[in-house]
Amino acid sequence: MDGNIDNIAEDNALESRRLPILGVTIAFLMVVAVSILGIYGLQVASSKAHELEQARLVSGNLALSIAQQATDTFDEANLILEELIERLDDLSPEALEKTQKLMKKRVAATEQLHGLFFYDRQGNWVLTSFDYKPPKANNSDRDYFKFHQENATLAPRVGEALQSKTTGDWVIPFSRRVNDADGNFKGVVLATIKLAYFDTFFDRFSIDDKGAIFLALPQGTIIARRPFDEKLIGASLARGEIFSVHIPRAPADTVMVKSIIDGVDRLFGYQVLHKYPLVVAAANSRESILSRWRADTYQLTAMIAVVLLINLMIGILLFKQVRKGLLVEGHLKKARAELQTLVLQDGLTGLANRRHLERNLELEWRRAARQRSSISLIMLDIDHFKTFNDRYGHVAGDHCICAVAQAIKQSVHRPSDLAVRYGGEEFAILLPDTEPGGAYVLAENIRLAVQALAIDHAENAGGVVTISLGVYTCVPASSDFNTLLTRADSALYMAKRSGRNQTVPSS
Question: Quick one: which H or E segment has residue 436?
Fold first, then answer.
């Protein structure tokens, strides 16, 4: 009887020990399931954000390419108009005949040109690149003629697309005012740009079936569009988000908007041209952008469902593995140690980070104070880095920072020296047991190494990326190691204030 009681007591004790293990295992399985679902959700959101970001880059690059092509197109036409204006000083019959031959030659040699014209102050046709000139032809009723007649500006004007009186083709009028020797209105020169030229150019770009590309005037009037629809030429986008909301905020951007023309959600990259009153935009539809993401999400959903089912089926076996927790804990400790190393390293450049510098600086400062030895610190940053980022973009900025970091690595050789990315475009090099002369020589070597990289920087003196450096050396006489940082930073400030691209030792 006592033996049975003892067995029951042992069983109860064993059961009491099993319940917590089973409970922990069940809790663990629930955490795994929740984690899988959480990772799944993060992956879905991350992949969606990635697809949209890639699409933003594509749309932005498309808009940039189209903007450049449009600028080049009108630049070429503008040069031809300038040449024509110069020849209009002489309106003798012989000169006019020569000028007309030149106009015909220019139109034949320039792909985008439909025709060239010169109208006198009354709007009468004086010259045309076409062989046929209608009798008593007059263009004084055209908007571009009225504009130049009423406005003294000599800048070129891009008008709304219209049908040529000569051929009936759709063209974009590109016109300039002509003044006489006294500065009075003499007439208008006009280059008509083939609308079909832009249709052909737009067709070179890969967009989806619901995508769109357009060229418009600043007030939102469409002058060219893909897909082409004659009814939309001259339509207004002024009430659309791009023109009413986004362009007033930024001359170039990538935005998801719903088209007021057909109601399709598209990711538009738009660009306001700097030289001419035009806006270009290119877009792919949201549906097309996210189609692959949806397919991948459906596939991933099926896989997650299978994984969760398997997890549920084998859950009963997992509690036996709880005893292996110590092994898992060992792995976690190792991972924490690796993470600790990563915490002290800059992710972009591979150099030590600011936290690492602060740790080492305090230790080296105390050691130098005990040994009465010199300690030096070089502080440096990239000259005009903000303007570099503004001009070339943040991706190029990261590449620039990495290149400077590599130059620093190649210049710092002693194991005791510590090269640090201090923050942003600023770096520091801690040099224990280093005299002022040695620190200055190393700083100059780094400066020259960065300059020798010849990284383009149009906003900087010399046209390449340069750095400014401040150097401070001392034998510690107090416990405040921040003195080293403060004095080196002051020297750096003096280097920048004195013209940049130089090394200034702190006195």
Answer: helix 436-452
Catalytic annotation present for 425: yes
Torsion, CA 354, CA 356, CA 360, CA 362, rounded to 10: 50
Instruction: Write out the residue limits of the CATH 3.30.70.270 domain(s) in the chain.
Output: 341-505
- Which token pair is 173? 């009028």
- Report residue 433 as tokens: 């047991």
Spatial strand order in the sheet of 418-423: 418-423, 426-432, 375-382, 467-474, 503-505
Measured CA to CA in angstroms, residue 259 lies from 9, 157, 262 at distances of 77, 27, 6
DSSP string, 103-119: HHHHHHH-TTEEEEEEE
Tell me how far the alpha carbon of residue 417 is from its chain's centroid. Answer: 36
Coil, strand, or helix at residue 124?
Answer: strand
pTM of the model as a whole: 0.53
Residue 500: partners with Cβ closer than 8 Å, 6 or more residues away: 383, 384, 461, 466, 468
Per-residue pLDDT of the chain (507 residues; tens, 9 = 90+): 444 434 444 445 444 454 566 566 677 778 877 888 888 888 888 888 888 899 899 888 999 999 999 999 999 999 999 999 999 988 899 999 999 999 999 999 999 999 999 999 999 999 999 987 778 889 999 999 999 999 999 999 999 998 887 788 899 999 999 999 889 999 999 999 999 998 888 888 888 889 999 999 999 999 999 888 888 898 999 999 999 999 999 999 999 999 998 899 999 999 999 999 999 999 999 998 888 888 888 888 888 888 878 877 777 776 666 566 545 666 777 767 666 666 788 989 999 999 999 999 999 999 999 999 999 999 999 999 999 999 999 999 999 999 999 999 999 999 999 999 999 999 999 999 999 999 999 999 999 999 999 999 999 988 999 999 999 999 998 878 888 999 999 999 999 999 999 999 986
Residues of the chain with CATH 3.30.450.20: 38-315
Determine contact, residues 293/18, Cβ cutoff 8 Å: no
Cα 418 from Cα 90, distance rounded (Å): 74
Domain 38-315 listed as CATH 3.30.450.20: yes
**How are beta strands 222-226 and 212-216 bridged, if at all?**
antiparallel
Point out the catalytic residue in the list 86, 338, 358, 425.
425
Name the architecture of domain 341-505.
Answer: 2-Layer Sandwich (3.30)
